[in-house]
Amino acid sequence: MVTTQNPAAPPALSLPAGRPQRRVRATSGSGRLAALLVSPTLLVLAVVVLYPTIVALKDSLFGTPGLNPKTGFVNETDPFVGLQNYGAIFGAAGARFWNAFWNTTFLTGTTVALETVIGLAMALIMHRAFQGRALVRASILVPWAIPTAVSGLLWRWIFNSNGVANALTGQHILWTTEGFHAKLAVIIADVWKTAPFIGLLVLAGLQVIDREVYEAARIDGAGALRQFWNVTLPLVKPALLVAVLFRTLDALRMFDLPYILIGAQKTSVETLSMLAQDQAANVRFGPAAAYAVILFVYVFLIALAFVRLLGADVVGDDGPTPLRRRWRAHRRTKVAA
Q: What is the CA angle 112-113-118, rounded to 5?
């Protein structure tokens, strides 16, 4: 078999035999440029994250100024107590801390679960093409755009003893007092406000899915429910997991909504952030810093566990899944036809 070469084509370059290919490494100039570009971000993180964390850790080792039993005078500076603040938290006197810890965990788990389901439904609705879709999208995103303080005041009026909630239920419930109904009020208000956030992130993931994937699924005989379970959910899973991660970390630091809606020092809804603020407001900066450090460690461990367990799903799998293989086979068949 005789092959001919196009005279207009440039000659192919070939490396000498026996000479191994070397990887191109970054030069010192490009390394300095990369460090220069990253340095503003690192500086901002050091100022707003690293420095406050170090200061809070240092302050948690000091106690509250009081009467010095040795001298009989009041201490002008905070006495160094070491780990006594942490010992008091995890000791017999830590009932308030554990109540705030379980409130934080319960409110986070409940609100994030409900917001994920409702946000996914919102994303599916906003993704469909129908008349008036822009108006529906705007109305769904309005609660998320409202500041949390304004949202808390709005729901406080709704859950008033003579408010809309009691008028709809036909009962006289004191929502802003102690009890499980206070937790329920916070959950309803928080889900109403932040479910559109998850819906917005999931909508961004839905919009990058190629329509030909659904066409291939329909050719395979998949109905609407099967398309959602085997096509939509796996392909939108990375965006959904990122949204759940962001929302979980934000819910663990919940402060303003229960503080405005229910009030301070309410054991039913007091969170770790509210507990730390209450200690600082009473000039007990050492215990307040200890609570803040524990909350930071709690949030960090949740984020680390989330990334470790679901990191591959968040990043995405580069390997060909059965869905991708069927899609590619369908495209090859379509091109051949």
A: 95
pLDDT digits (tens, 9 = 90+) for 171-187: 888 888 888 999 999 99
Structure tokens at 184: 């329920």
Q: Count Cβ atoms within 10 A of the Cβ of residue 95 and give its class: 0-12 exposed, 13-18 middle, 19 or more buried.
A: exposed
Pull the structure tokens for residue 143: 């609660």
Q: Which amino acid is at 329?
A: A
| Mean pLDDT, the chain, integer | 80
Contact assessment for residue 164 and residue 158, using Cβ atoms and an 8 Å cutoff: yes
**Residues 18-52: pLDDT tens digits?**
555 455 455 667 878 888 888 888 898 888 888 88
* Phi/psi of residue 240, nearest 5 degrees: -65, -40
| CA distance readout (Å), 184 to 100, 118, 133, 187, 260 | 16, 17, 31, 5, 15
Residue found by looking up tokens 């479910």 in the block: 195
Chain position carrying tokens 């009691």? 166
Q: What angle, rounded to 10 degrees, do the helices at 180-206 and 133-145 form?
A: 130
Instruction: State the angle between helix axes of 95-127 and 180-206 in degrees (0 to 180), rounded to the nearest 10.
Output: 40
pLDDT of residue 228: 82
Provide the H-helix boundaries in the chain: 28-45, 51-59, 84-89, 95-127, 133-145, 148-158, 164-169, 180-206, 211-219, 224-227, 233-252, 256-261, 272-281, 285-315, 322-336
pTM of the shown model: 0.77
Q: What is the mean pLDDT of residues 298-304?
A: 91
Task: Tell me the mean pLDDT in the region 222-226.
Answer: 81
State how far the alpha carbon of 62 is from the alpha carbons of 17, 75, 291, in Å: 71, 12, 13
CB 257 within 8 A of CB 194: no
Question: 71 and 233 in contact (C-beta within 8 Å)?
Answer: no
Please, how many CA atoms are within 13 Å of residue 201, restricted to the half-sphere of its CB? Answer: 20
Residue 303 CA to residue 49 CA, distance in Å, equals 16
> Is residue 324 predicted with pLDDT exceeding 70?
no
- Extract the tokens encoding 211: 């329509």
For residue 322, the one-letter residue type is P
